[in-house]
Amino acid sequence: MKLKPLKENKNIFIDERGKLYTKNLVPGKVVYEEKLVKYNNEEYREWITNRSKLAAAIKKNIGEVPINKGDKILYLGIASGTTASHISDIIDKNGIIFGVDVSSRILRDLVPILYDRSNIIGILADADKPWEYLHIVTKVDLIYQDVAQPHQVKIFIRNIEYYLKNKGYGFLAVKARSIDVSKDPREIFKEVRRELEDYGLKIIKEVRLEPYHIDHAMFLVQNK
Q1: pLDDT tens digit string along 39-56?
Q2: This protein's superkingdom (predicted)?
Q3: Is the peptide bond before 66 cis (omega within 30 degrees of 0)?
Q4: Which of 45, 51, 69, 149 is the most buried (most CB within 10 A)?
């Protein structure tokens, strides 16, 4: 098996079958039963598309993946750390992820990952109240949000106001059924686009995440 870096991000890799990988920051350790492979004396973790909305977005040609070594990331809705662990691989030991989640039970599941990965900080807080973690979180290069709330766009924008650098990026994973189960997801995604543009964000790309995640879309935006 051969791996080659993606042209959109040289720290994400792809094999001949189109499967995605990141170089394992903690060799020998898995996070969610993903496959480990060796290539050129380095260990890589398979990035499973139906377990990670960011991996699905990459497979659906979101294009640019503006996550780099040394970046500071605010991750809203970090949950058990599946996607965050791959971002952790990409940003390497000099980067940092501020991982926010409102559920203490879910954060307990994250604790073993925090022991292994010193570049992730778990924060028990409500992403709807970004002022609550001002004493921990600095200005960041990118905000990644995966939060199942009806007002998830407002949460995203509120955190951008507090934490995103000028010209910084954001990934917003939109769960249409969490916003309004009675509406056509296509209409919801149009409304989300309008809301982001009305705030003044530049929308770089929007992709639907089917077949990996039904009624989901990913928006890649940039702070003007």
Answers
A1: 999 999 999 999 999 999
A2: Archaea
A3: no
A4: 45
